[in-house]
């Protein structure tokens, strides 16, 4: 093993934290949807991909600054998530007589949504790699001798902030309480006067709206292709299971663990092997804590 | 004749091929406590689930103060005023006692008055007020049952149904619970109660229905039912 320069190592650590927080932010919606509905949304990454393209096209066609396109992408993705739930998934839930949806059938359904969205995107946008560029001059912030990429820092801060706001909203509002109650006991929620199908659609909408936010924030520094969603989707799944399904802080913690581990490991082994090692870490943590780092046993 | 608070006529329901309710008719008048008695599997819980809209009725009708509620979604039934404390309590165990109560007041009619109602519920069950910020899972079985009844009251029911409220409670807690049910009646809310404690519930109830194999086989005043030979032999073991 090569001797490590502490400066390079701390640079990797900072970058790992930033990327990890972003992973956590991207995974928030998946965790929320899984926690409330027990539905693994396989199309999670595809929705992020659509938000990235929305940001790109808004800039390419209308000259809208990527950071400003949030005001379009967030409501757009909310509507899309709301529709996917109420049009595609709701009929499946209605047919279930048991308390929860058969996880496998919901997974297959959302996997179908993923295939349709990704291939439609490929047809419509072609395989070219696109990128959006921000008009702001974002100079790296110097943390002592370590340069910190501003775009990543912004996305990281947004991840932390959305996790805090989402938790507060779930605790302190009527709709938030209704979502938590529905997550814990669907029938009891319905008997308490909660419109469960509406709660599900709003939950899916919020999960997707978060991807609208991160689509706009990531568009300036990751390459945009029709396939970019899948790797984010799978990583989100790992982050959510690692952090504890349905746990909002768990999502961020899981993201940080994966991000830092990958960044540090790739200092010692090639990046592809680092990804394999992070899966090894994932399995190892689950052996010790099957319900995830922040999950309830 | 006075308008019924709750009236089911020839109600039929089931799961898949299984027919559970085979034409049940019953009524509950304003101010009444009515007991629903029957063996396990007779269809008591299914009856409540059907009235609440969790199970779709296959025939018959349900009216609440003259307005049809069959075919409504569960949250609409609660908003209309039929509220039940379901079998097995079904609390939101990870949420605090206060939050459980607030969720109970989710329907539009009740939400506006939630602060008044929660004070009434805390007055009825002081132990809940004492522990309002604790998780529901930290309560004893009896206290959890109080919370389940309290949560149902938060919805400002016009008819309250209780599904086996005394299940699994120590005798002293059962006594306390029945006291609480009488207190609810004084709030002028008619109550339909499913109970295994047949003697105790019939002593309290104005009337009772006996459900067997999805049909009402016997009905009458609480006193008449206690005297009934068939009922004494089957449910009281006398």
From TrEMBL, chain A:
Pfam families: BPD_transp_2. It is found in: Cell membrane. It is a multi-pass membrane protein. The keyword Kinase does not apply. Keywords: Amino-acid transport, Cell membrane, Membrane, Transmembrane, Transmembrane helix, Transport. InterPro entries: ABC_transp_permease, BCAA_transport_permease. The chain crosses the membrane at residues 6-34, 46-64, 70-92, 104-125, 150-170, 198-224, 236-261, 268-288. It comes from the Bacteria. The keyword Transport applies. Its main location: membrane. Belongs to the binding-protein-dependent transport system permease family. LivHM subfamily. This is High-affinity branched-chain amino acid transport system permease protein LivH. The gene is livH_10.
UniProtKB/TrEMBL annotation, chain B:
CDD domains: ABC_TM1139_LivF_branched (cd03224). One of its GO terms (molecular function) is ATP binding. PROSITE patterns: ABC_TRANSPORTER_1 (PS00211), ABC_TRANSPORTER_2 (PS50893). The keyword Transport applies. It comes from the Bacteria. Residues 6-238 form the ABC transporter domain. The keyword Chloroplast does not apply. InterPro entries: AAA+_ATPase, ABC_transporter-like_ATP-bd, ABC_transporter-like_CS, BCAA_Transport_ATP-bd_LivF, P-loop_NTPase. Keywords: Amino-acid transport, ATP-binding, Nucleotide-binding, Transport. Belongs to the ABC transporter superfamily. This is High-affinity branched-chain amino acid transport ATP-binding protein LivF. It comes from Methylobacterium crusticola.
